[in-house]
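Today's session is about reading a structure prediction critically. Students often jump straight to the picture, but the first step is always the sequence itself: look for stretches that repeat, for charged clusters, for runs of hydrophobic residues. Only then move on to the predicted structure, which in these notes is written as discrete structure tokens rather than atom positions. Here is the chain we will use throughout the hour.
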Amino acid sequence: MILLLLGLALFLGIHSVRILAAPWRTAQIARVGEGKWKGVFSLASFVGFFLIVWGYGQARLDPLVLWSPPVWTRHAAAPLTFGAFVLIAATYVPGTRIKAAIGHPMVAGVILWAFAHLLANGMLADVVLFGGFLVWAIALFAFSRRRDREAGIGYPAGALSRDALAAAISGMAWIVFAVWLHLWLIGVRPLV
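Below is the predicted structure for this chain, in token form.
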């Protein structure tokens, strides 16, 4: 559990610098340059992610069950994670109405992903991992929306076809992940 906690602290911490220490971040970028800053940021993110994966895997070897979720929660998690995939795809497809409405669909996707996994899993490691991401993403979403409002930032909506493209891309990615990759990477078949 220690590795999982360290990984979460590093990964979520580095991704929270803009919220917690924006002036320091700006000063560091000015001091070392944007390229070096991105390099350090990427390295810290990778190490944090690696520790999360390793720590979560280790914690699952000796699980502490907090509750046993009803079977229906597994079935509810599937469409929720599909929604998360759509939100994440909408981040990268320019001009989606989803981004225009939500502002930060990547973070909203993390919220939905974490909630779905908390709903369907009842081990301590699950609560730490998905609960940590959920709390972080909610705080980041609120901060980002407030920052956008204060700066007068809006996201223009394009044609509905942009949303259809995001849904098609995410649908294919979700099927590949849910049917094959989730079992291979995590050891759990979510659609059974």
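Discussion point for the tutorial: The chain has a mean pLDDT of 94.
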